[in-house]
Amino acid sequence: MHSVASAPNKIILFGEHAVVYKKPAIAVAINKRAKVSIKNTKKDSTIIKCNDIGLHANINPKTYNIEFLEGKKGILNYILEVLKSHHDNSPIKIDISLEVPLGIGLGSSAAITVALIAALHNYHEKVIDKSSLSKKAHEIELKVQGAASPLDTAVSTYGGMIYLKDSNIEYIKPNIEGSFIVAYTPKPADTKKMVSLVKKKLEKYPNIVGNIIDTIGNVTKTAYELIKEGKFEKIGELMNINHGLLDSIGVSSSELSQMVYSARNAGALGSKITGAGGSGSIIAYCINNEDKVLNTLKSQWDAFKTKFSKDGVIIH
Ligand code: PMV
Q: Where located (predicted)?
């Protein structure tokens, strides 16, 4: 039996960090994906490989003990939790391929988790609907990370654009013009650390930081209305405001801000951190000047152009 599934990466357009405090957020699937392939094996161990990040692990399929490990353990925690709850104890070979690096705030762990759960169901000739898949994948993220909003796993499951408000996931069908340029720092983002930094700031200055979080929520609500009305030019301006607010609560860095301003100076309509910040990625929204913005960012950092993707999880 050979089962293959893939799921998209995502960018957060508005509302990161504030979403942890029950404010709304908007995220969108992009045309970069994580692909998971599962085959049966005659070996005694379950073999997990992701050549893109130099990961090779052999796992005891009954005890889940790691018998051999090459590369960083990080993503294995998600894979092991998925295997524990969605597979029997037979050895299998799992091959993962990634189109963007792990840990840059583009949701690779959620994409891998969603694709792996889908591929395992297919392997066992079982059907799982998207609502259950999204929920199960979020449960895995919660187990591994301790805290996580359902945003990443919902976008990786459903694709398209998601508005998350009061734990409700609304699927938006925008006809967005233009494209997003993503640029990222060599150092990965540390979501747990940045979420706890914001929590400490909020405890220290409850009125000030509380108001900033409320304002990020209002920016997101306004952006949601504009996106639905197709007023994309104003989106850029709101992205800039959102970035300034994120900067004010300490989740930018001089390098991220440099990237954000380089993109704006090269003609982006708007640019901001995407994801947890501290390090990791920025996004720049362009209707015109895409190549100029891309080349400007590329001259100093890793950068690529990306499009929205309607596709969520796919069984191949
Ligand atoms: O960097 P990412 O993709 O893990 O995004 C983090 C977004 C936060 O709002 C900071 C945390 C969360 O769980 O929503």
A: Cytoplasm
**What is the maximal distance between C-alpha atoms in the chain?**
61
pTM reported for the whole predicted model: 0.91
The tokens of 84 are what?
Answer: 């524990």
For 274, other C-beta atoms within 10 Å of its C-beta total: 31
CATH 3.30.70.890 spans which residues of the chain?
179-306
User: Is 312 labelled as part of a ligand binding site?
Assistant: no
Burial code of 275-288, b = ≥16 C-beta within 10 A, e = fewer? bbbbbbbbbbbbbe
Tokens of 272: 């901001």
Let me know if 214 is a catalytic residue.
Answer: no
ipTM: 0.96
CATH code assigned to 2-174: 3.30.230.10
Atom of ligand 1 nearest to the CA of 198: 10
Residues in contact with ligand 1 (CB, 6 Å cut-off): 16-17, 19-20, 105, 107, 148-149, 151-152, 189, 191, 195, 275-276
Lowest mean pLDDT among 178-182, 255-259, 292-296: 178-182
Q: Where in the chain is the domain with CATH 3.30.230.10?
A: 2-174
- Distance from the first to the final alpha carbon of the chain: 13
Q: For residue 107, say whether it is annotated as part of any ligand binding site.
A: yes
Of 44, 52, 95, 152, which is the active-site residue? Answer: 152
Cα separation, 103 vs 85, whole angstroms: 24
218-238: pLDDT as tens digits: 999 999 999 988 888 889 999
Cα 146 to Cα 23: distance, rounded to the nearest angstrom: 19
User: Mean pLDDT over residues 231-258, rounded?
Assistant: 95
**CATH code, 179-306:** 3.30.70.890
Pocket test for ligand 1, best of 151, 169, 216 (most atoms within 8 A of CB): 151
54 is in an annotated binding site: no
Which tokens hold the place of 46?
Answer: 């379950």
